[in-house]
User: Fold this.
Amino acid sequence: MFTIEEAKQKLAGKEISSEELVNDCISKIESGDGEIHAFLEVFKKDAIAAARTIDKQRVAGEELPELAGIPVALKDNMLVQGHVASGGSQILEHHVASYDATVTRKLKNAGAIILGRLNMDDAAMGSSTETSHYGQTRNPWNLSKVPGGSSGGPAAAVAAGFVPASFGSDTGGSIRQPAALCGVVGLKPTYGRVSRHGLIALSSSLDVIGPMTQTVADAATLLRVVEGADPKDSTSQNPSETSVAELLKLTDIRGLKIGIPKEYFISGMDPEVEARVREVITLLESHGASVEEITLPHTPYALETYYIIQPAEASSNLARYDGMRYSMRATGERLEDVYLKTRGEGFGREVKRRIMLGTFVLSAGYADAYYKKALAIRQLLRQDVDAALSRVDVILTPTSPSVAWPLGEKFNDPIAMYLADIFTVTANLTGHPALSVPCGFAHDLPVGVQFIGRHFDEDTLFRVGHFYQSITDWHKNSPL
Assistant:
């Protein structure tokens, strides 16, 4: 599969047409996705029609937008007008979006072709895409392994070469962790850089939409298209524009200061994963970057803090699914029966677990003991990261403590599953941008390295990530 930059060049040079590119993606999906199950639905008719329109415009010599004819697929929690958006859940199985999410609209305005919707964990709750009501997704590198989650479908679709790029949502690592496990690039932008309007909400103070691609340059291109303030999302902001052209000209990282937090190299982490990440540190240092050990002292409390705040916000956001408006509706003799049966049948086990946990930590007598303390620790975590980034330009960590694990291995052990997010949740709690880049293999499976940067300074992440990809070829490996 072409990268976005390669596809743009071939389309501009008329080596291929948009329709041929879309049909090639559809052909690969039809022949290869039966085992992987990255897609829940391919918008075949709409995608081909859009491609033909762009081809006609190109032949007529019309000026075309930046992503004209480029296929992109979206996680199933982003609204595409006229199509189902289920959030991987039974409760929204027949929910047809009445409008486009802001990200969807911006992609369409840029000429991108929305190819389909991608599998995800039920209501975005999970780290392996095994909780989806529509069946698990498999890792293209090894079909017996998980792809990560909750954006396992988007990660697998790019890794398998079904589509040049996808978009996922990241609440506690749900872009970066599956990107690492599937060997692709995953970007969690700064909180507020990309509008959340039209994203099915999980945890409103943590959710971020971001791209998953083969290259850092492609991620930068997509961020530039979708970023910016949106009157329909009061948390969104206008950042300085990402300069992809300047990014591609970068030839060195001399003088870049990289911080290595000692709290992220913990006992229990796969030794081969740690070895790959330390190889990245050595390589970047040999090319002129300065490396120093730093400390983020409240890191040991990050996971516990996340699993108080996220379920609390989720219990509130998911209260709207009661069978009265846009969700499925069970039958019952009384109104209370309808509520209970709808939510009982519509939500999976993991969603119910987190709703109960979130309701508990917000309840009278417990909010002070749990929720308010978690908010206080969240502020301390943010101060830790800000203090570190006042001394260094970027923080380097592993993305995941392990490579992809076997399907079913952690499915019935929620604590073990939650630990898969141990290196990613801090960036969500603090709002900082973070980028995962493929950095090699362990046990014949991909490993990812994570870069965390200052608020709205994605350009520095792109600088180091793009440079790393320019001197290595891990991102060029394909499982198929």
About this structure: The mean pLDDT is 95. The chain has 16 helices and eleven strands. The two ends are 10 Å apart (CA to CA). Residues 124 and 150 are 5 Å apart (CA to CA).
